[in-house]
Amino acid sequence: MSLNDARRRALAVGVAAALSVPLSLAMVVPASAASATATSGVSSFDMLARGDTGDRVRRVQKWLEIDRTGFYGDRTVRHVRQFQDGRGIAVTGNVNERTYNALKARWAATLKRYQRVLNVARNQFGDPYAYGAAGPSAFDCSGLTLYVYRQATGLRLPHRATSQYHQSTPISRSEARPGDLVFFHSGGDIYHAAIYAGDGDILHVSRPGTVVGRAPMWTNSVYFGRVINQK
Questions:
Q1: Does the active-site annotation cover 192?
Q2: How does pLDDT run across 84-109, given as a tens digit for each residue?
Q3: Taking the domains of the chain in order of start, what are their residue ranges?
């Protein structure tokens, strides 16, 4: 046995005696155990807070459905606090890992609801217009939107375009996403309801002799409305 080996063994014997553990255990410490001890309980998530900037802030703002400025200011703090309070998360106004994951999950659920709206509407393609009809095989304009939203989301809209408009939350054209409502107006009076399909198109049925389908919007005199709200 070399001198260095003898010294290491003597040191191990002393440590083992002091700790009252077997010599074999005192001489062997697995690297994996040491690594686990060093990192135990430490999260790599980088919390977002007031004053932060960048793409992650924009992502959170999108999930909150507020302006995507990329700056974590007072408005973002306020909406984060409201979300945390509604979800039973510690109300800090900061986005920790739990808040981030909860926001992400809620956004994914909202997008699924929109997709169901589009799927139900497309399933009605080819069904004819009939005044006062609300499905399942014939529709007028507000009867179609009523039917689609009830089937896709469980929401109960009134059977009148003007009433649906007043029940929706007004949004801008830039905020509208496929699945939101579009209301056509003339002189302020609502005369047609449809479902936004994206790229300037709508899913609708308009008058006798037509069927449910996709078509371009023929005028800019429209209001956009949202009835799918995040929960």
A1: yes
A2: 999 999 999 999 999 999 999 999 99
A3: 3-39, 55-110, 125-226
CA separation (Å) from 27 to 3, 8, 17, 22, 68? 17, 9, 12, 9, 57
Structure tokens at 23: 């010599």
What pTM does this model have?
0.76
Q: Which of 79, 166, 185, 204 is catalytic?
A: 204
> Given pLDDT bands bounded at 50, 70 and 90, which one contains residue 42?
low
> Which residue do the tokens 């699945």 mark?
179
Catalytic residue (choose from 141, 159, 166, 185): 141
Among 230, 212, 68, smallest CA distance to 143 is for 212
Q: Annotated catalytic residue: which of 159, 166, 185, 192?
A: 192
Query: Are 228 and 113 a contacting pair, CB within 8 Å?
Result: yes
- Per CATH, the homologous superfamily of domain 125-226 is endopeptidase domain like (from Nostoc punctiforme) (3.90.1720.10)
| 185: annotated active-site residue | no
Which two three-digit tokens encode residue 61?
Answer: 């703002």
Answer yes or no: 166 catalytic.
no
- C-alpha pair distances (Å), 21 with each of 9, 32, 139: 14, 20, 82
What whole-number distance in Å separates Cα of residue 182 and Cα of residue 225?
6
Mean pLDDT of the chain: 87
| Local confidence band at 13 (pLDDT 50, 70, 90 cut-offs) | very low
* CB neighbour list of residue 159: distance below 8 Å, 6 or more residues apart: 132, 134, 142, 143, 146
Which pLDDT band holds residue 31 (cuts at 50, 70, 90)? Answer: very low
